[in-house]
Amino acid sequence: MVFVDILISFLLQLVFTVGVIFLFGFLIACCNRAFYGNFGRRGRAVCYITGFFGTPVHELSHALMCILFGHKIVDMKLFQVSDEDGTLGYVAHTYNRRNIYQQIGNFFIGIAPIVVITALLYLVAWLLLPAMTSEFFSAIGNINLSEGFVSVMVCLFHAIGVFFSYAVQWQWWVFLLIGMLLSLHMTLSGADIKGALGGLALVAVLLFAADLIMGLISMPVLNTFTQYCMVAAGYLLSFFAIALVFALLALIISLPFRSRR
Question: Among 114, 136, 255, 85, which residue's Cα sits nearest to residue 196?
């Protein structure tokens, strides 16, 4: 019975943290793909324009995680116009395959654009709209994933409502423009996903080992840890929801161009 409780805690932690990251990453990628698709033959040109701003941030987020996890950067392009495969930028890195810490780093390097760009959006929000940011954080502080889907959605929509209530200020529109340019380049490439999945297996094994130790020592300790993970997941959910809103707004703006292709 104890082992079942440990397994349930592990699955909750994994699904509501890593699962949230991959879910919103997928939804944002779908919006971005549709956005560029609406421009038809002009899609690549539009991608170059937005990529001039978003791609360097995307690649620098990879580079940041490479540095934090001890990977060696052997080559890096922050932005390029490529007619061959459409690659706008890249970070080539190597690591010691015997080093567990560096292996774990593959996961965080792979998902870096989603996490880092979302964090950057909140930094920009804090600089441009500190009152909105404070009110938004107060709203999402009420999110408790253990209370059920309806309760979470009510809190989430309230937080998003706070976000849109500041649209009367010019700073909000500047934030909107920055947010759309960055969110359009949060999409993970195939190489990003492959690298992240390679590190995810080790992350999951280590997390389960930690849960197993905590659960065997004291279930209340494990339950407390799981609760903290759920609270963190609530913040992740709110953060990514705003990034998804930016991607959806960009998609809506592109719709009139669909009929002109």
Answer: 114
